[in-house]
Amino acid sequence: MDSTKWISKKIALLGSHAVGKTSLISQFVYQKFPESYLTTLGLKVDKKTVEIADYRIDLVIWDIAGKDDTAQVPLYYLKGCTGIIYVVDLTRPSTYNTLDQQLSALKERVPDTQFIVAGNKCDLLNEQQLAEKISEMPIQPDVVTSAKLGLNVEEMFLQLAQKLVHQHESQ
Amino acid sequence: MVTETVHTEATALNRLRTLLLEEEWETHQKTKEELEEIRDLLNNYDQLDDKLEPHFQQHIVYLQDNFPQLFRKSLGKALERQIAESKGEIIEALYPIIGKLISRYIRAEFEKLSKTIDDAQRDFFSLHNWKLRLKAFFTGVSYREMVMQKSQRATLEEVFVIENESGLLLGHFSMNNLLDPDMIAGMLTGIKGFVEHALMEGPEDLESLSYGVHKILVHNAQGVYFANVIDGQVDVDFKTALDKEILSFLEDHPIHHKEPLTEAYRQTLSLHLKEHFYGFNQMDQ
Questions:
Q1: Which of B32, B277, B12, B22 is nearest to B156 (CA)?
Q2: Domain limits for position B232
Q3: Cβ contact (<8 Å) for A62 and B190?
Q4: B166–A81: do the CB atoms touch at under 8 Å?
């Protein structure tokens, strides 16, 4: 492996509390779904290496405690982030009602950052309910996931990694 | 004639009794039947089980949910009493474990001490030894105490060079790789950011973190910080020597990191760190 094509990137998962950020990371990094809910205090950092084309990317994943308003997330947690996954709970409209405002505010605070919006907990809805919920959202999610079933979890992180590689190549 | 009259009276009396006591009689019969039913129920365990099961279940769930509140006091007292009464047994049970830990620790410490004293004796005619003796003479601290102090001297275990903003690890040197340095770098930056922004007023920076016998000394530089993991007692001399060494490193290898961070950059910096800090613990501070 050409060591100039082995890169490290800091990414973060944001969103309201209990939307499944930690579970998504746990499913992606350890292939496990934590059955009991433990709220994240402050911050937890994990790491996973993925390969995209001929790049090897160390994703250093910051799991940041849930906040309904992203303005409350300290800037020192966000600085240096090249990618952000904004997670919403598809069964709780309060987690996505202001999604457009939350994303705009975030893009102002951390410009040049790649974003992905994930609608999590799709396993709790049937097809019709899912379609209704998505149509209600102010911004359509880039990916619909289930941390519990492991549905689209890896794909979501790889999608972000892909964006990071594109950004890296264009620099 | 008389007999006929008596018969008529008896019939009338019976009718009157029936009329007057009919209601009580019915109640009596009903009560008797219900009593029979209850007796049957009590004697038939299967039926009784079916009736009581839901109530028991409900009560069990209630007890499970409220166990700590309901029994905290009594349990606490019972445990206290049990511990007070069984001190001997508890010590007996823990003794082998604690004993082994203590003896292992003491053995390791003695080994270290004995090695240091051996080294000191072996180096009796060395320049370092005579410097130590002269220092002892002028400072009034005994030579023996100085050798002891040397045995507890701090040692540099790991050096992390971390980008301030992102918390990404730019370079790392370790005497014994224990944990994933990327995760440590991220968590350290999170903690540092939290402490500096939430707890400190003004432009102060976090300088150190302690855990057990380890200490992390933080040295802030332009855009990056050095997190140095130390084992043992850190004194001013050690800290000064380390700061001096970091400044000398930055002079030799200025860090001008700009995105993106590649493994090639990290490997080069880590190599420089190894070359520079490998012999730090052998240096005379």
A1: B277
A2: 153-282
A3: yes
A4: yes
Contact between residue A8 and residue A45 where contact means Cβ atoms under 8 Å apart = no
Range of the domain at A143: 3-170
Q: Do the chains contact at B197 and A171, CB–CB below 8 Å? A: no
Q: Contacts of residue B258 in chain A, CB cutoff 8 Å? A: none
Tell me what ipTM this predicted complex has. Answer: 0.80
The enclosing domain of B191 has a CATH number of: 3.30.450.70
pLDDT at B164 over 90: no
The verdict on B186 touching A (C-beta cutoff 8 Å) is yes
Alpha helices in A8-152 (DSSP H): 21-30, 75-78, 99-109, 127-136
Q: Given CB atoms, is B267 within the 8 Å cutoff of chain A?
A: yes
Domain annotation covers residue B222: yes
- pLDDT-wise least confident of B60-64, B78-82, B91-95, B158-162: B91-95
Cα Rg of chain B (Å, integer): 43
Rounded Cα–Cα distance for residues B110 and B180 (Å): 31
pLDDT digits (tens, 9 = 90+) for B100-143: 777 777 777 777 777 776 766 666 667 767 777 777 777 777 77
Residue of B182, B197, B266 with shortest CB distance to A60: B182
Rounded to whole angstroms, the Cα distance separating A93 from A56 reads 37
B205 domain residue, yes or no: yes
A105: tokens are 């505010």
Q: Alpha-carbon distance A20 to A26, whole Å? A: 10
Asked if residue B248 and residue B209 are part of one domain, the reply reads yes
Per-residue pLDDT tens over the stretch A1-21: 666 788 889 999 999 999 999
Two structure tokens written together for B113: 């001490």
Closest CA relative to residue B117, chosen from B129, B108, B105: B129
> What is the amino acid identity at position B194?
F
The number of distinct structural domains making up chain B is 2
For residue B139, give Cα distances in angstroms to B125, B131, B147, B211.
Answer: 21, 12, 14, 32
User: What's the total number of domains in chain A?
Assistant: 1
Res A122: pLDDT: 96
